[in-house]
Write a structure and sequence with these properties.
This protein has 265 residues and is an alpha/beta fold. The protein has a single domain, classed as NAD(P)-binding Rossmann-like Domain (Rossmann fold, 3-Layer(aba) Sandwich). It has helices spanning 16-27, 39-49, 63-76, 99-127, 148-168, 197-209, 215-228, 238-248, 250-264, and strands at residues 7-11, 31-36, 53-57, 82-85, 130-135, 173-178, 232-233. Helix 2 links the parallel strand 2 (31-36) and strand 3.
Length: 265
Amino acid sequence: MDVTDKVAVVTGAAGGIGAAIAAELVRAGARVVLTDLDASAVQATAAALGDTAAAIAGDASTDADIDAAVRLAEDTFGPVDLYVANAGIGSGGGLDTHETLWDNAFDINVKAHVRAARRVVPDWLERGEGYFVSTASAAGLLTQIGNAPYSVTKHAAVGFAEWLAITYGDAGVRVSCLCPMGVDTKLLRPQGGTGDADQQLMQRAVETAGEVLTPERVAEVVLEAIADERFLILPHPEVLDMYRNKGADYDRWLRGMRRYQRTLR
């Protein structure tokens, strides 16, 4: 897809990867609606991007707020061509993670994608084209030491993106799935400290697995993948080798991950 003059919605866009993708889309000539729970931050981020960006506060996991963001895009710029389901959370830990955190992780990291697709895909099928970008994680291809809900829901996000691409790819709906390792955002490095032991373990695992990239670099890779209509977006190319090694010998990979976990602890 050439994003020039295309209309996009980006969730989780007050900062981090979402804000960087929105900025890169605007630089490439797209018109973008940014949405995020943080009303003041998302409004400020959109204002800095100029007249081809607009913002609305909302929860990316609710049907009502998804619809509101899409309607704002339609009313302000025209029919939505591209939806970037980027909002996500990293809360959680091990088996003692509260049910509420599990529910929130599934709602935001997975069901938000399902609900967004339910809203935009029917229109795309009528028009014969559209583009859905799902922000998952390398944890969705590999795993996430220190955080069970994050690992499980990111696997599910990858699975849904695959299903979407297979089911509607022949009808003009293109899908990409973003799977980075470490990115310098609040999700990796939350404000107010490093959190509990599980959070610290997760942070050490991410920071020692590979380079921690800037959100801006990730956004550049995302736009390149959209231009190529490439499904798997890997800002850390080494993830592909890790994924191949996992599939080639699962038991060996599991043993290696346990050794790695011991070194982190």
